[in-house]
Amino acid sequence: MPHDTPFTGPWPSRSDAPFVTVVTPTLNSAATVAETMRTVALQRAGGNVRVEHLVLDGGSTDDTAKIVAEWQHPDTHFIVRKDDKGPADAINAGLDLAHGEFLCWLNSDDVYAPYALERATAVLRRHPKAAFCFGRCRIINRHGQEIRRFVTRFKNCFFPLSCHFLIRTLNYISQPAMVFRASAFRQAGPLRTDLKAAWDYDLTLRLWHQGRPVAVPAPELAYFRWTPGSISGSHYERQFREELDAAIADTGRPSVAIFIHHLLAHSIVFLYKRVCSRNPEPVSEERIDRQPPEAFAQAQSNEARDSTLSD
């Protein structure tokens, strides 16, 4: 991944700007964390949203800490927790420390689209009863190329039909493209650390009881990086099994939704096995646009000009 010039601002947020806390769990993420840090930093462009970024590190031994330090900002904090019990535990710790009225987490290999948090919080402010919002999310490989487009299109087709019954039958919400209210999270409770692959889906189901969510209009909010070694790449059978258990716990009894979920889970696992056996990492030639938005580029230019004039 290209390592761009670190962003330090300053772009002061308006006093009435939404305040978002982004939590990023890391462990030896030097290969990808710069891109994650950059796209979180870019959310501050224009000052229309205040972004607190908490990076929770499990004791990295590579250059993760050094790279995070290059993206210094008053609202960015690097916290080492060598005794954490995995990603869900680290995310819980970060969310517990969060000051924002809106919360989310972004793993250290995923990235945001430009102005994603500004768009998401604007939707939440227009729908004060919504516990969370969700948007589109593309899937990319380790090189930043879009892959698995059929999965993305399949999930997106459920957005107009979104309801509690539907989310109990299938997890069509991509975690990197989800933002929730801090108040709703406090009521729903923390991520389940006993789950290995479906703690995000379990939280989605519990948040739903705090207020029906709202979808953010296109384009996408985030990009999820899929690799054969990722949780969804190497533990997808366990993921679907845990998702089914979470749906059963949410309904509290056998139901039509659970029956449908059971059938879909087995069908998707079967298809995944077929696809992965033929092409473990399908690649398209199209790369995501990782260039800074115009506001970021202009601000850097102005900062360089001001520095020259002051000299």
Strand content: 5-15%
Q: Identify the overall geometry.
A: globular
* Uncertain residue segments: 1-7, 282-311
H/I helix tally: 12
What Rg is obtained from the alpha carbons, in whole angstroms? 19 Å
Strands side by side in the biggest sheet: 3-2-1-4-8-6-9
For the record, what CATH class of the domain at 19-227 applies? Alpha Beta
Percent range of helical residues: 40-55%
CATH topology of the domain at 19-227: Spore Coat Polysaccharide Biosynthesis Protein SpsA, Chain A
User: What distance lies between the first and last C-alpha atoms, to the nearest angstrom?
Assistant: 33 Å
CATH superfamily of the domain at 19-227: Spore Coat Polysaccharide Biosynthesis Protein SpsA, Chain A
Helix- and strand-based class? alpha/beta
The overall pLDDT average reads 85
Please count the beta strands (DSSP E, at least 2 residues each). Answer: 10
| CATH architectural type of the domain at 19-227 | Alpha-Beta Complex
- H-E string: EHEHEHEEHEEHHEHHEEHHHH
Describe the sheet with the most strands. 7 strands, mixed
